Amino acid sequence: MTGIEGRRYRPGSPAPAVAATRLAVRHAVADLPPGALVLVACSGGPDSLALAAAAAFVAPRRALRAGLLTVDHGWDPASGGRAEAVAELGRALRLDPVEVLVAHSARSEGAARDARRAALLAAAERLGAAALLLGHTLDDQAETVLLRLARGSGARTLGAMAPRDGLLRRPLLGLRRDLARHACLAEGLEPWDDPTNADAVFARARVRHTLLPALEEQLGPGIAEALARSADLLRADAATLDALAGDAHARLTATASPGAGTVELAVDALGELPSALRTRVLRRVALELGASAAALRAEHIWAVEELVTRWRGQQPVPLPSGVTARRRGDRITVAGPGSTGPRPSPRRRLADRPETEEGMQVSHAGVSAPDFDDARPGEEDTAPGVPPQQAADIGEVLVTADEIAERIAALAAKVDADYAGRELLLVGVLKGAVMVMADLSRALRTPLTMEFMAVSSYGSATSSSGVVRILKDLDRSIEGRDVLVVEDIIDSGLTLSWLLKNLRSRNPASLEVLALFRKPEAITVDVDVRYVGFDIPSAFVVGYGLDYGEHYRTLPFVGTLTPEAIARGPRP
Ligand SMILES: O=P(O)(O)OC[C@H]1O[C@H](OP(=O)(O)OP(=O)(O)O)[C@H](O)[C@@H]1O
Ligand code: HPA
């Protein structure tokens, strides 16, 4: 008798393919105690049929009981009869119990797999099984790796199927699919070939029949084995990283949460973790607060990670299932949908903000100032322009960098329309207006020249002295020119009121003002401002050119300082 690959084997001994499947099953159940029940999930296809036959042979010799489960998905009128035929085969193999499970599902590979798995696990539990054997082969593993690689997956996902996963065991994971078919043939078992396995509508069928053969043809044989090997290596790596992330998660969440359904993490501690652990900790926290595992994508976690590694005053990050993550000072707060702790305030997007005739309205998000530990200098956990210490001094971000950019573009369009056919002279009021001058001048299409004046009325205090000093005057005359004064902020209005009077006396053709921020509740003198970026609350703010004692100007957003930071005084 000739066996697979043309080898000869002795009459009376099993065909090599049969021997290989039996050996694989023997290894897979070696640890089970006598009397334990092993169930085989069998579709009637060659892999699971070979597995059922091998289990039927091995179980009694290991004093185990073996049964068979088959699932009817109800995809076509013949499916019930087919499932019954598989059950009949199981009985013929003397498997006991044998059950047909009905698990209707949508006609998609994923939906069928989920429904099948749920039905099988429920039955295995009900029957008190010690193991549920699945017929996945090395080829299934290779296909899974390729499919997941094409989606851009991490180590855990590329680790694909494990030989053991709770109740599930996959004895044939190291064997090729051909071998299972040979084992069926050698035992006189006629497998059912599921037509969906060849249906090019299904991605897996295309991988099986087109992609993998093409890869083997182009790159040489052994691709399936190589892909399965990669899965083994990545699974081991992922298991180690998951264990380390579990430790880090326990460490970082050891302190009390601010409320039920809320987890607070220290930016410092997260910043010290390598990215592979940080993202795993963040994912774990999101999942435990109720984010759907199926919907939670790497992009979500990266956005949360950027609150640590590239902090530039971003909005809270929405995650699936109503979970939100936000940074306040040196803490990341992740809140579940039903949290009772301090919820991330639902800051409105710029587009949602009411726009008055002149400016966008910005209000406090209504959050109390966070408590801060001393951030450590030199720590690279923030975006450019955001020294870590300064990041920890910010109480609330009122306007983000993106919102500023969007607003300046809109203001520039208005100015361009108003000054069509004319040449502008922009007068920047140093130093605070340096950022808005730079960005506005480059957003304008109107021909322009620039002049700067430096005045000061604040010094290192947080309220205006009312005494304005010219620190640097204009270099040229503005007589007859269309002048647009560019200011970062109008607070009391004292600086601008004084400046306008001063400039008007120099006889410009026209004199208008553009101020990126205005505090309507703080204005004490009447000043006429043609262009306003944002109306903000009257709290002292820093960032985007605005300083506290010359510091904080480089922050790309505008935010309030914590009371502690104000009391302590400016710091680099
Ligand atoms: O409306 P007010 O209450 O007068 O405040 C507005 C002025 O205060 C700031 O300048 P500051 O004196 O701080 O100097 P700086 O621009 O160099 O920071 C700001 O740049 C405005 O010019
Ligand atoms: O709120 C402010 N911050 C910084 N500088 C300022 N100058 C006027 N108001 C402010």
Automatic annotation (TrEMBL):
Major subcellular location class: cytoplasm
Co-factor(s): Mg(2+)
Lineage top rank: taxon: Bacteria
GO biological process, one term: guanine salvage
Domain Phosphoribosyltransferase as annotated: residue spans: 402-548
Involved pathway(s): Purine metabolism; IMP biosynthesis via salvage pathway; IMP from hypoxanthine: step 1/1; Purine metabolism; GMP biosynthesis via salvage pathway; GMP from guanine: step 1/1
EC number annotated for this UniProt entry: 6.3.4.19
Keywords: ATP-binding, Cytoplasm, Glycosyltransferase, Ligase, Magnesium, Metal-binding, Nucleotide-binding, Purine salvage, Transferase, tRNA processing
Annotated family: Belongs to the purine/pyrimidine phosphoribosyltransferase family. Belongs to the tRNA(Ile)-lysidine synthase family.
Protein name: tRNA(Ile)-lysidine synthase
Species annotation: Frankia nepalensis
Underlying gene: hpt
